[in-house]
Amino acid sequence: MQIHFKYFDLVMSAFVTVLLTSNIIGAAKVAILFNIEFGAGVFFFPFSYIFGDILTEVYGYAKARRAVWSGFIALFFASLMSYVIVKLPPSPNWNHQSAYEIAFGITPRIALASLIAYWAGEFSNSYIMAKMKIWTKGKILWSRTIGSTIVGQAVDSIIFYPLAFLGFWETKTVIEVMISNYFLKVLWEAIMTPFTYFFVNLLKKLENVDIFDHNTNFTPFSLKD
Fold first, then answer.
1. Among 133, 137, 119, 152, CA closest to 46
2. 193 contacts 144 by C-beta, under 8 angstroms
3. How far apart are CA 53 and CA 209, in angstroms?
4. How far apart are CA 119 and CA 3, in angstroms?
């Protein structure tokens, strides 16, 4: 019997919103604090993994899989829209093309790297999260949220930064940003553990559900619940 969830759509919407904004606004800027270079989106992109953890923990892998595909389609459309609009000839009466190109001129290479890295990283994260829930019998939530992020963010970072920026940035910068961003994302996940605990427990209570993926088909190439 199909279970109707009252808050799944809201959590998925938050997941997709964070994904889009962190990629479009923060992905290409390199910032520096305390003499450490990092991608500016690192402050917000990890929230997509936090929401991914919440979706998998509360609603199960199959529902999280639908959210990941929704995010993938939204990110693909946003990247395509950015590219097309930037390439459209500007009106002679509009003098902001150069600024628009800087802000939204995502290259096909970066867009492709982002899509591949997101897809691989999020599915790795959800898979590890779901499997660890079974292994831990639903206990020690922090081990699942941090453990899945360690894997998912590693997959994401190893794919995205070399694919997007090698040859465009100096190799040293690519490596430094990739490593610093990875550790910052994992640290951010650990710091946000109380937030994750609160919303996981709240949603489980509100939805009256606690799903274990014992018989789940873990293929990413499906939209079945």
1. 152
2. no
3. 15
4. 26
pTM for the structure as a whole: 0.91
The DSSP code sequence of 135-157 is HTTT--HHHHHHHHHHHHHHHHH
Count up the domains in the chain and report the number. 1
Question: Could you give the CA distance from residue 89 to residue 45 in angstroms, rounded to a whole number?
Answer: 32
- Joined tokens for residue 138: 């639903």
**217, part of any domain:** no
Residue 160 falls within a domain, yes or no?
yes
3 lies in a domain?
no
What is the CA 140 to chain-centroid distance, rounded? 23
Which residue segment(s) compose the domain that 196 sits in? 8-207
Reduce the DSSP state of residue 80 to 3 states and report it: helix
Burial 154-169 (b: 16+ CB within 10 A, else e): ebbbebbbbebbeeeb
User: How confident is the model over 98-146, as pLDDT tens digits?
Assistant: 988 877 877 788 889 999 999 999 999 999 999 999 999 999 999 999 9
**Average pLDDT, whole number, for the chain?**
91
CATH code of 79's domain: 1.10.1760
Distance of CA 221 to the CA centre of its chain: 18
Closest CA to 133 of 194, 218, 70: 218
